């Protein structure tokens, strides 16, 4: 009986504090064995949890900015989502799932708010990229629940390809450039491979600051190989088709030119020897 009365008084205290908007202090007290115990106040608050503070989305896709909250109140929450900019942009404000007012043109037909405060964005755009602040308040609760979720929106990568001035080069040529290009993709990083093995900045292999271009400062015969590049962003990665770079010795070229020159000379001599002027 003693334990039952203690619980009864404590719950009464929580209920009074929950319903009162004038004071956060509970005035109930408990008398036990001639001694008086003052019960501590129960302060109403919206407790919010965010399962994932970083969401990655693709252009044209969907993003679920998930939140959960708990409260002693049974009233509907007032939910407010804002996008951080130089001046905060209100994405949506609602009472429960009922949207208040008119959505901004860029969000019309793209917004859905769930009862637990979660926000669903349809048909993502690059402009949706950013940090979203959420605020959930309930009339009976003194403290508001607040949180933030970062959304990244990227364009999927198309297959990259390697562009170079020629598929062959002379030995000892300088500053031969290979360029890794792609038509689509945002927030990209690049990697280069020679013979299937990763390439890094070396004495003769120089990568541009964004690693999109590979420059062979002085071409050697050992540089004849298969080259490829890989492009990566938060949505995935793609690798180019391999391309072979042929390297020719300068001495071989000289021999070819010399042989060709001798062949042309012999041909001219033969033609001249066989030619006789026509008689008129």
UniProtKB/TrEMBL annotation:
**Residues of the signal sequence?**
none
The question of whether Membrane is a record keyword is answered with yes
Task: Look up and give the organism this protein is from.
Answer: Xiphophorus couchianus (Monterrey platyfish)
| Keyword line | Cell cycle, Cytoplasm, Disulfide bond, Glycoprotein, Immunoglobulin domain, Membrane, Signal, Transmembrane, Transmembrane helix
Asked if the Swiss-Prot or TrEMBL record annotates the protein with the keyword Disulfide bond, the reply is yes
Q: Which residues form the Ig-like domain?
A: 160-246
Q: Which chain positions lie within coiled-coil regions?
A: none
Tell me which Gene3D superfamilies the record gives. Answer: Immunoglobulins
Q: What is this protein called?
A: Ig-like domain-containing protein
Any one annotated GO CC term? endomembrane system
């Amino acid at each position: 009986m003693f334990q039952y009365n203690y619980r009864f008084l404590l719950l009464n205290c929580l209920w009074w504090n929950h319903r009162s908007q004038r004071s956060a202090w509970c005035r109930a007290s408990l008398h036990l064995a001639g001694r008086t115990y003052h019960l501590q106040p129960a302060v109403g608050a919206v407790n919010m949890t965010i399962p994932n503070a970083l969401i990655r989305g693709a252009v044209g896709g969907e993003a679920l900015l998930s939140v959960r909250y708990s409260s002693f109140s049974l009233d509907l929450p007032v939910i407010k989502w804002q996008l951080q900019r130089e001046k905060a942009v209100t994405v949506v404000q609602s009472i429960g799932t009922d949207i208040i007012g008119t959505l901004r043109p860029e969000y019309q037909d793209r917004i859905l708010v769930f009862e637990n405060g979660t926000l669903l964005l349809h048909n993502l755009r690059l402009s949706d990229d950013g940090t979203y602040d959420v605020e959930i308040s309930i009339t009976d609760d003194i403290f508001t629940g607040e949180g933030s979720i970062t959304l990244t929106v990227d364009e999927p990568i198309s297959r990259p390809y390697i562009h170079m001035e020629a598929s062959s080069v002379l030995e000892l040529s300088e500053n031969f450039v290979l360029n890794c290009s792609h038509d689509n993709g945002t927030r990209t990083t690049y990697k280069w491979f020679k013979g299937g093995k990763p390439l890094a900045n070396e004495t003769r292999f120089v990568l541009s600051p964004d690693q999109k271009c590979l420059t062979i400062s002085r071409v050697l015969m050992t540089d004849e190989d298969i080259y490829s590049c890989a492009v990566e962003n938060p949505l995935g990665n793609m690798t180019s088709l391999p391309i072979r770079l042929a390297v020719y010795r300068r001495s071989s070229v000289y021999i070819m030119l010399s042989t060709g020159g001798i062949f042309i000379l012999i041909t001219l001599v033969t033609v001249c020897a066989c030619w006789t002027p026509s008689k008129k």
